[in-house]
Amino acid sequence: MKKNPTTEAQLFNDLSTSNDVMPRRQFVDPNFLLVWLRTTVDELDKHDRDLINALQNIFDNINEFTNIDECIDFLIARKQNNICVILPCYADEYAVSHIHDMPQVNSIFVLCRNVIEHKKWTCEWPKIQGIFKQMALICDSLKKMAWRKDQSSVTVSIISESELSKLDQTFMYTKLLNETLFNIEYNEQSIKDFADYCRKQINVNDYVLTDVNKFQREYHNHTAIYWYTSPSFIYQMLNQALRTQNIDTIYKMGFFIRDLCQDLKVLHQQQIVDRQQQQQSFTFYRGQKLSNIHLEEIMKTKNALLSFNNFLSTTEDRDVAYIFAESNKDSCDFVAVLFEINVDSLVSSAPFACLNDTSYFSDQEREVLFSTHTVFRMHEIQKINENDDRFWQINLKLTTDDDHLLSALTERMRIEIKAINPQDQLGQLFIKLDKFNEAEEIYHLLINRTGSELEKANYNYWIARIKYHKGDYDRALSIHEQVLEIRKRLLSADDSNIGDSYEMIGLANSELQYFSEALSAHTQAHKIREKNLPDAYPLLASSKLNIALAHRDMENYSEALRYLHEALKIYSDTLPPYHPYLATAYENIGLVYQHTKKFKEALEVHEKAREIYEKSLPSDNMDLGICYDNIASTYECLEMYSDARIFYGKSLAIKQKFPNHPSLAAAYNNIGYLDAKLNDHSKAIESYEKAIAIYEKNYTTDNLNSAAIYNNAGKAYANIGKYQIAHNYLEKAIQIGKKFLFENSDRLQRWQNDLKSVNDQLSNHLSV
Predict the structure, then answer these.
(1) pLDDT digits (tens, 9 = 90+) for 703-735
(2) Whether residue 458 has pLDDT greater than 80
(3) CB 630 within 8 A of CB 670
(4) Broadest EC class (predicted)?
(5) Residue 245 domain flag
(6) Which of 358, 385, 416 is the last residue before a domain boundary?
(7) In 3D, which of 78, 77, 95 has the Cα closest to residue 87?
(8) Closest CA to 14 of 120, 97, 116
(9) CB contact at 8 A, 348 and 398
């Protein structure tokens, strides 16, 4: 173990105050533990006990011990890597050494009245933060440490000049979400709903619950900036939600995000005139950790854009930021970074404001806060010290740059969300983000609030789309047919909403293998859109694409390709180059190529679809998972099995987010089929059974997809000699197939041959 001398500042923390760093409370991190070894006679007064209790909003548990062996055993059993330990001065060197060497221990604090006496031995241990005369001083240091930990975990998006459109995954959807949240009318119920949401969180303890109650009771007594900077759970909860894109929390905190942004905007407008009179350019600082991967990306790019995925806290005091940055130098996977941010007050593109006199800490902090997802341009990166590659300075400039691809794509998404009101807009955005339960909750609320039959029909249209996306195709079809009847009664025959209903009826029929009904519905939708729209319009392309899919399902491949290329031409002429609709067209062209055994051509267009999806959709979007499936199946047809397995794995990882979706069953079937090709039939059976379980539990098995899985499972069981089970599955596949396929269908004849072969083997087996 390496021993490093500590500085005088570390040793004499008892002289420090709590005003130099913001000691904000945290929404409890279950991996952040406090262990306190104390003497039985070391009784705390009420003030110190209150201080310790207050730390419960930082630490999931405060674990107290009076026996050193029990304390060490407890630490050994922990798997968390963020444990803080408070030791008494009587702890011997062996115990300190043992605790110090545990990788899960992050820092050690010594509580002792006699600093001078114990100064020498504490110097030998770098994890020891100092000797503290009072518990209050340790509590202050722990709060600072928690705040530094949170500040250092702020994530960034780095975009090179040649790949600006990649911002859209995290930036575009958040921008649209924020716009939508700002337009919603909030009331007292919004605050109550948020408070109730907080109370239901698993890792909220009694102390934080007191905080939540206070927030609900006193919210209007203070500004949003006051609450954000106060020692409450709000700061951590909000930034953690923004950092991880926790849509549930962001939605529940919509009223607060809107108020905080509005407060910042007002404060910015008040301050900017004074700033411009004093000087045009200003410099702010921020210290944090940055992953080694992100550092490598920055080193490779020139004049890249950088977006912080949170409200960004900076300071006018370089020394404060330097201390924050330097505290991250010893992390293996991260480097310390000091950001120097230059702002031209005449051309700034985002609101920022100094929080003096408005924050909870009044004018002590010199904090300058930028709004969430502010974009900067990187200008220079250099080492702080020439011989230290763990500590860097990165110079940023607040930019007015607005990538035209990103702007066009965002505007296109904005246009596509045709909403009656902000809640409807939010519901549609949630559907785009695969947040189906949240969207359905919104639409049920909207249905209960309106007395208009037409509005109820419109909201039920979106509920039916949610059912479709969740794989409940029968229910989706039923609701869409009801909505269509209402719309036909209340609207003109050529109204675009009627066309939308026909489109969804067609899609649901396709999934249920009613292909002629699907083609009829899509043709009706296209006729209506032709009357209402210009020739080159994306919705017309969508109609053509849907007609193409119906022809493909009916094995009319040349007709399918004709419509697909017509759709692709319209999309290419009218949409930004990374719009998901373009990917959908490429993807379906690839599927037709697969059906016609043009596998190399199929792989080429599937890769085009993947490139667009990966640049325009969140990384866990279902459409991206389906795209990975298509690439994998093409590799499988080309007998490139290792590549196929990689993409099937990518697809499965996404689809497992929806445990009851038929698409997950398809993913298991694909993996099973690949294992069977590689003669690992037992492993294949595991996947087939998972797929069958999804269908039998959640859906009717009366469709060709489940029939295909039964057939595959039957062949796998036959290959391991379980002929009776094989017979049962193959027979079931044929029974279902006869309902949907012609008697002379190639597929049905193959299944019948499979059953005949198994029956022969079963007869031979029984006669032995």
Answers:
(1) 788 899 999 999 999 999 999 999 999 999 999
(2) yes
(3) no
(4) transferase
(5) yes
(6) 416
(7) 95
(8) 116
(9) yes
